[in-house]
Automatic annotation (TrEMBL):
GO biological process per UniProt: response to oxidative stress
InterPro entries: KH_dom-like_a/b, OHR, OsmC/Ohr_fam, OsmC/Ohrsf
Protein name: Peroxiredoxin, Ohr subfamily
Species this protein is from: Catalinimonas alkaloidigena
Lineage: Bacteria, Pseudomonadati, Bacteroidota, Cytophagia, Cytophagales
Similarity annotation: Belongs to the OsmC/Ohr family.
UniProt xrefs under Pfam families: OsmC
Gene3D superfamilies: 2.20.25.10, 3.30.300.20
């Protein structure tokens, strides 16, 4: 990689039952193992939620870049990322990601093509390509407060 345009820094202490904070303290959270993985659960975040949030935001930005370059008019896009964790069959654990990109106001086939292009340029997609399974799904529904 050439020179970084931006470098984020965060520190974790205590692992999955600890604390994470960014160097500027904008992110300052307690983390816990989710109940589904044998942990206490509760009103805490976990690494998978943080990864899902980052991937969704990054992919939505990549998608909007592709839409802008194509000079298309769409409704407001959204990306929902679901990150699953489970045994990888080799004694460790692996991740699986499902991205559901919603691009209202355009033809579904065109939306699928835009999502494939976004997947080719998104830094998170490029970082994970070949390492984890990423399932891309596309919708073209107008989102309301009821289905957002």
């Amino acid at each position: 990689m050439s020179k970084a345009l931006y470098t984020a820094e965060a520190t974790a202490t205590g692992g999955r039952n600890g604390h994470v904070a960014s160097s500027d303290n904008v992110l300052d959270l307690e983390v816990r193992v989710p109940r589904e993985m044998g942990g206490p659960g509760g009103a805490y975040t976990n690494p998978e939620q943080l990864f899902a949030a980052g991937y969704a935001a990054c992919f939505d930005s990549a998608l909007n870049l592709i839409i802008s370059k194509a000079k298309l008019k769409t409704g407001t896009t959204s990306v929902k990322a679901s990150v699953g964790i489970g045994p990888n069959g080799s004694g460790g654990y692996g991740l699986h990601v499902t991205l559901v990109a919603n691009i209202p106001g355009i033809d579904p086939a065109e939306a699928e093509a835009l999502v494939r292009q976004a997947h080719a340029v998104c830094p998170y997609s490029n970082a994970t390509r070949g390492n984890i399974d990423v399932d891309l799904q596309v919708t073209t529904d107008e989102l309301t407060s009821e289905n957002a």
